[in-house]
Design goal:
Mean pLDDT of chain A: 88
Number of helices of chain A: 14
Shape of chain B: globular
Largest sheet of chain B: none
Helix content of chain B: over 70%
Order of helices and strands of chain A: HHEEHHHHHHHHHHHH
Number of helices of chain B: 11
Largest interface: A-B, 79 and 83 residues
Largest sheet of chain A: 2 strands, antiparallel
Shape of chain A: globular
Oligomer: heterodimer
Distance between the termini of chain B: 35 Å
Radius of gyration of chain B: 23 Å
CATH superfamily of the largest domain in chain A: MetI-like
CATH class of chain B: Mainly Alpha
Number of domains of chain B: 1
Number of strands of chain A: 2
Number of domains of chain A: 2
Mean pLDDT of chain B: 86
Structural class of chain B: mainly alpha
Strand order of the largest sheet of chain A: 1-2
Strand content of chain A: under 5%
Order of helices and strands of chain B: HHHHHHHHHHH
Strand content of chain B: under 5%
Low-confidence stretches of chain A: none
Number of strands of chain B: 0
CATH topology of the largest domain in chain A: MetI-like fold
CATH architecture of chain B: Orthogonal Bundle
């Protein structure tokens, strides 16, 4: 008896020694709470979503037998594909606008501001402390019938009647999203510009490049990681946004998020909603891969 | 040369910066304006100054309860996700892990999927497991969304961390826990503060996850969403928005003051 006890004791010691010796084990045991939370809160739900997309809705219950019906519905009714395509288009426009508008501002803070850069960065983020919903609502106020733009134009006598076409269309959605996500574009671009070794720029100038060419051949390629991060940070979340389209989009500004939301709400067809979500995720992933491949080629071309 | 040109000397960039700041500030500046407007309609022309919406705000128990719910959830989420982020950040910066890339990628997934998809996946799982929806389910979902942010903030603070300081602590006879408490923690503290602020903000402002995962207890964004449909409720919401804005201004100013103070002590203790 006592021999087994001591041997199990020394066995325990051996495990303990091995545990302390192995970096990987200690690292993973530190990681385990986070990983566990992510497995339960992320991997499992996504798996369940995927499974549900092959089930069918029967009033409030599910028919739990495998079926392709939701996917064939998705392809049979062009409306889903069209709205998904429109969402990608709107988000693409938003991403382009946000990044193009943010780049010069980030450049200005990184290269022209010498003191108190942090104050400038805070200045950029201050408007975004307002609730997301209220920021979107603010554009309703800007573009609405009795809104800022219409009242302004009327008071300087450019128009007699308020313009009704400003609000409730895809353009209003694009402007609102480009405003709401501005900070997400500026910060990564700023970080990548700030990291650039200034002596590289001096070298380019010394070697006879003019200001524009040294920007194109040195600054731009080196800031591409920031541009890519900014694009992804804006593009991916905006595809699924449904707050903005429901507040300022009107019937023509509906996006795929609205469809998914209605499937889990009024339309009460969770499996079809799950299938639409899976299709959206696949499309977004494909777009992101295409984008990464494109930027990779672009970088190789100018480098 | 470029480097010695003061920023305010007007040229294309300065003009652009002014235009850009106008673009991001203008819409949100109109919100507090209408919280002082006499008319209950959010439209021009303005009807005169009043404080009655602020009075209505203080006397609206529903709104204050939603605010309290958001604060409670936000505090829980900030603490938990910062703790998870801290453990994970320590693990990946301190130890050589096999499969570090895929593991990091997995934890970062919430950053790169549309929030609505995270929300409905959790909703399906939670309803299949027959767990009742509540503020707890909202908090759990926020924790998932916030942990990657916390981890990124803390990794960037820990990467520049000199490990010989920890070893010195151990050599001088402190145990692992005391070394963490007296050496690691003070150095990482600015990162922890940043992470707490960021995760609280994300949770406090989140609408999508809360919309799908709460039952009868609204968080503040849920309350705002429902009152956007009732024009008469909007001015009081704008009053609350303006008040929250002013408070967060002071919080950030305090955090910045705290950070600078931290930098100063860092440099003097370094001698």
């Amino acid at each position: 008896m006592s021999r087994t006890a001591t041997s199990s004791h020394s066995f325990g010691l051996a495990i303990r020694r091995r545990f302390l010796a192995s970096e990987a084990l200690r690292g993973f045991s530190l990681l385990s709470p986070t990983l566990l939370a992510m497995v339960f809160g992320l991997a499992m739900p996504l798996l369940v979503l995927f499974t549900l997309s092959f089930w069918l809705q029967d009033y409030v219950d599910f028919i739990k037998t495998f079926s392709w019906k939701n996917y064939s519905d998705f392809f049979a009714k062009p409306i889903y594909g069209m709205i998904l395509f429109k969402s990608i288009k709107i988000s693409g426009m938003v991403t382009l606008a946000t990044v193009l508008l943010a780049y010069p501002m980030a450049y200005f803070i990184a290269f022209r501001i010498q003191k108190n850069k942090l104050v400038w960065l805070i200045l950029i983020t201050v408007p975004f402390w307002t609730s997301y919903l209220l920021r979107v609502f603010a554009w309703k106020l800007m573009l609405g019938y009795n809104g800022v733009v219409n009242s302004g134009l009327k008071s300087i006598g450019l128009i007699n009647e308020p313009l009704a076409f400003l609000l409730y269309n895809p353009t209003a959605v694009t402007i609102t999203l480009a405003h709401a996500w501005a900070a997400f574009a500026i910060l990564p671009i700023y970080v990548s510009l700030e990291k650039i070794d200034r002596s590289l720029l001096e070298a380019a100038r010394d070697l006879g490049e003019n200001a524009f060419m040294s920007f194109v051949r040195v600054t731009l390629p080196l800031s591409m990681p920031g541009v890519i991060a900014a694009s992804l940070l804006v593009f991916i979340p905006t595809v699924g946004d449904y707050v903005t389209p429901s507040l300022v989009g009107g019937p023509s500004g509906i996006m795929i998020g609205n469809i998914i939301q209605s499937m889990f709400g009024k339309a009460l067809n969770w499996p079809l909603g799950a299938a639409i979500s899976v299709m959206s995720m696949l499309t977004v992933t494909a777009m992101v891969c295409l984008f990464l491949w494109g930027t990779h080629r672009f970088r190789r071309k100018i480098a | 040369m470029n480097a010695y040109r003061p920023w305010w000397r007007p040229d294309g960039f300065v003009v652009y910066a002014v235009v850009y700041l106008t673009f991001i500030y203008l819409p949100v500046l109109f919100l507090p304006l209408f919280s002082f407007n006499k008319s209950k309609y959010i439209a021009f022309p303005l009807k005169g100054f009043t404080l009655k919406w602020y009075q209505q705000m203080v006397n609206s128990p529903d709104m204050l309860e939603a605010l309290m719910n958001s604060i409670k959830v936000g505090l829980m989420v900030a603490l938990l996700s910062t703790m998870l982020g801290l453990l994970a950040a320590k693990a990946v910066t301190r130890y050589r892990l096999p499969g570090r890339g895929p593991v990091m990628g997995f934890i970062m997934v919430p950053l790169v999927i549309p929030e609505i998809i995270l929300a409905i996946s959790l909703l399906i799982l939670i309803s299949q497991a027959q767990i009742p929806l509540s503020l707890w389910t909202v908090g759990f979902s926020h924790m998932l969304l916030c942990t990657p942010f916390a981890m990124l903030v803390l990794i960037s603070r820990m990467e520049g961390f000199d490990r010989s300081l920890e070893e010195a602590g151990l050599d001088l006879g402190e145990n692992a826990w005391m070394t963490f408490w007296r050496v690691t923690f003070p150095i990482v503290l600015p990162g922890i503060v940043a992470s707490l602020l960021l995760t609280f903000t994300i949770s406090f402002d989140d609408f999508v996850l809360a919309f799908f995962l709460t039952s009868t207890d609204p968080t503040l964004p849920i309350y705002i969403w429902s009152s956007l449909r009732f024009p008469t409720k909007i001015p009081a919401v704008l009053a609350l928005g303006a008040s929250i804005f002013v408070i967060s201004f002071f919080v950030v100013a305090f955090a910045e003051w705290f950070r600078r103070r931290g930098v100063k002590t860092d440099s003097t203790s370094g001698i």
